[in-house]
Design brief:
Elements lengths: L10 H12 L3 H14 L4 H14 L5 H16 L2 H10 L20 H13 L3
Helix pairs in contact: 1-2, 1-3, 1-4, 3-4, 3-5, 4-5
């Protein structure tokens, strides 16, 4: 995808993403509150990038990060096209590329997210 300017984002989608993440643990809730305090609003693609980085940085071993990723997967699998685009642009683009450190976390993603990520990688030269 191009810039985040192409992503259809509305306040309801941002709130839906934030609430889904915040509900997974007190740590995730604090991350969401910090994000909103820092940016003055919920920027869902940036928030999901932060969740992706948290997951990668902890090598998928932090239970709170894993619960947040489960919520991201649920959003993707049950969301409309706009929510799916936000997940792809924010979360999946934060995943390490083939051959990069932390790539093993991709194996912990849901089947739907792994399939989408592999499809993205097959369309995009590394």
């Amino acid at each position: 995808m191009g810039s985040n300017d192409d992503v259809p984002i509305n306040e309801d989608d941002g709130r839906r993403v934030a609430e889904a993440i915040a509900a997974t643990s007190s740590v995730a809730g604090e991350l969401v509150r910090d994000h909103e305090a820092e940016h003055g609003e919920i920027l869902p693609t940036l928030l999901l990038d932060e969740i992706g980085q948290w997951f990668v940085d902890t090598l998928g071993r932090d239970a709170n990060a894993c619960r947040a990723v489960d919520a991201v997967s649920e959003l993707y699998e049950t969301g409309d096209d706009d929510i799916q685009t936000i997940v792809v642009t924010g979360f999946l683009e934060a995943m390490p590329h083939v051959g990069h450190t932390g790539r093993e976390v991709v194996d912990q993603l849901s089947g739907a997210l792994r399939a989408e990520l592999r499809g993205m990688e097959n369309r995009t030269p590394n």
